[in-house]
Amino acid sequence: MSEKTLFQAIKGDHEEMYEFYDQYKRARERGDVPAQERWVRQLTWEVARHAVGEEIVVYPLMEKHLGGKGVQLADHDREEHQHIKESLYKLESLAPGSAEYHSLLDQMMVSLHHHNDDEEIKDLPLLEPVIGEEASKEAALSFKKTKKLVPTRAHPSMPNKPPFETLIGLLEAPIDKIKDWFASFPAEEEMKEAKEELKTRGHDAAACRTGEEH
Ligand SMILES: [Fe+2]
Ligand SMILES: [Fe+2]
Predict the structure, then answer these.
(1) Domains of the chain listed by start with CATH number
(2) Rounded-to-integer distance, Cα 142 and Cα 186, Å
């Protein structure tokens, strides 16, 4: 078994964010505005899913196992998330490719980098030795699972699909509401069974259509 520890999972995501930002910067150098928009969207989704995963899985662990210090660190982290979410929210109202857009995104990345570094340098090195490697790996799995439930990207059909009508809806949703939403998904066992069944399913649309009128 070589599952990732929580630190590795979180760190991996952070790296992904920087990669998307690098891609955005390259698109900016080329003057390719649609590509800039695409990378920002990708980055924003990654940040949103990551933040949801941390708020549901990681920060409560810090509060539970690190006493007053954990509560303090988690509160600080949530505040920084809020700040980052507000920047992303504001970004939506700016024109991609404009100077304001670039500068807000650059500022947001500075805050994000600082925040991510705090998690890597302060939070996780405190939490992991207290909970131990097994619990860290378990937490990494639930973090991954939680993230998976949030769509990977803003799909064109998203605007009509509750509860996260838009990306902003996801960013603004109260964490308790998101928790309830996650709880309404099939359990892992049910999911396993469904996945097994999916392997052998093959709906033949054309055959089913036979005899039907057009
Ligand atoms: Fe975070
Ligand atoms: Fe993080």
Answers:
(1) 6-152+161-209 (1.20.120)
(2) 14
